[in-house]
Write a structure and sequence with these properties.
The protein has twelve helices and twelve strands. It is globular and about 65 Å long.
């Protein structure tokens, strides 16, 4: 007997995802588990890739009422993207990091990014590991499944890059098998195109049908995958990082995603990654931003751009090199009132949540909680 595969943990009113979705605007933290965070700038700051620093950030975010936390996954060689920083050479794995965070947090949803097409991953591995973390976290665990856009990453595993749309076809088979394993109350045998199982079984049962599923995409193939499988979809501004251009382009972009999900009989939520530079006044925020840019590690910026240029990602086509010094998918720079106003406009553009990043994470997160969060509550974006 095979149980029904639930559309989403949001089907369960008491699930952590359903509780988070009561918020008008989901609030997440994009953890800096890699050195340099999102900004190849040498301006002094506290931002650090270590587990203890990221644990403290996650606990602070949870105390502030944030709904989500997760970090990126990457496979990069010695010296990272280069420069004085050796940008992103040091990085801790997000899957292992989330597993450790699950035991020290109580409410916040923890998302682990995984390249499921690299190396020896098998759907049975992920189904078992994810079910275990679902059990440990009380249903607060999710998987951001990425297929990988950079050709040098799969070469590290002794393989070659798979064509863009074919990667999503493989990912769909992979997660379809994982969902079968989570749902089945009996042994499972599957003879798939890419993976095979014989008399496989997974326990413990996920608490709310299955863990939360996420993917990051901006392509038609990625949107179709998201429509079928994801609860949260990490989108990129098709117009680049400049906030006004992004706000103009996002309504149609998000509507396209949600229409595909609706056609599949599902509902997805779109989340985006703003880089927040906030100070008491607009002038102070701009001065802070200017200082970050003035300390650009240009060799690291060039290395990052070169790495991206040889990949086949369709989500970052209109992003400009000058925005990579600060980083982030979109950039919001200003006073607390201006930051709150831009977040409100993102909501009005169809975005359901934001995964925030900062230049100097610890003090900047503290200031966001002190100065911006009350304004979001006043604007009706947070309960």
């Amino acid at each position: 007997m095979t149980a029904r595969i639930t559309i989403s943990p949001a089907d369960y009113p008491d699930s952590p995802l359903a509780q988070a979705l009561k918020q008008p605007l989901l609030l997440g933290l994009f953890l800096p588990i890699q050195n340099g965070g999102w900004s190849p700038s040498t301006l002094p700051r506290t931002t650090d890739w270590s587990f203890d620093y990221n644990k403290a950030l996650t606990l602070k975010a949870e105390a502030l009422g944030f709904d989500l936390a997760f970090g990126l996954a990457q496979w990069i060689g010695k010296d990272g993207y280069g420069g004085a920083l050796k940008y992103r050479e040091q990085t801790i794995d997000p899957f292992v990091t989330v597993a450790a965070l699950a035991s020290v947090t109580q409410r916040i949803v923890l998302i682990s990014t995984i390249h499921i097409l690299y190396g020896p991953w098998h759907p049975l591995h992920l189904a078992k590991f994810a079910a275990t973390l679902d059990h440990i976290s009380g249903g607060r665990f999710g998987i951001n499944m990425v297929t990988g856009y950079a050709p040098r990453e799969p070469r590290m595993f002794g393989t070659t890059q798979i064509e863009h749309d074919a990667r999503y076809a493989r990912a769909a088979e992979f997660i379809g098998i994982v969902e079968r394993l989570w749902a089945s109350t009996e042994n499972v045998t599957i003879d798939g195109q890419y993976w095979k199982l014989e008399e496989a079984f997974v326990s413990p049962r996920p608490k709310y049908g299955r863990p939360i599923l996420v993917n990051a995409t901006g392509s038609p193939a990625g949107f179709d995958y998201a429509a079928q499988h994801s609860d949260l979809v990490f989108i990129t501004s098709p117009a680049g990082a400049e906030i006004e251009a992004a706000l103009a382009a996002l309504p149609d972009h998000v509507a396209n995603l949600k229409a595909r999900a609706k056609a599949a009989g599902r509902e997805v939520r779109a989340i985006i990654n703003p880089m927040i530079v906030c100070r008491p006044t607009e002038q102070e925020a701009k001065a802070y931003h200017a200082a970050i840019l003035a300390h650009a590690d240009t060799e690291a910026v060039d290395g990052f751009i070169a790495h991206h240029a040889v990949g086949d990602s369709q989500a970052w086509k209109n992003h400009k090199s000058e925005h990579r010094v600060l980083g982030g998918n979109i950039q919001i720079i200003g006073s607390p009132e201006q930051v709150a106003e831009k977040l409100l406009r993102l909501k009005q553009a169809g975005v359901d949540g934001v995964q925030l990043a900062f230049f100097d994470f610890q003090p900047d997160l503290d200031y966001f909680g002190e100065a911006v969060l009350p304004l979001l509550k006043q604007a009706g974006l947070r309960l």
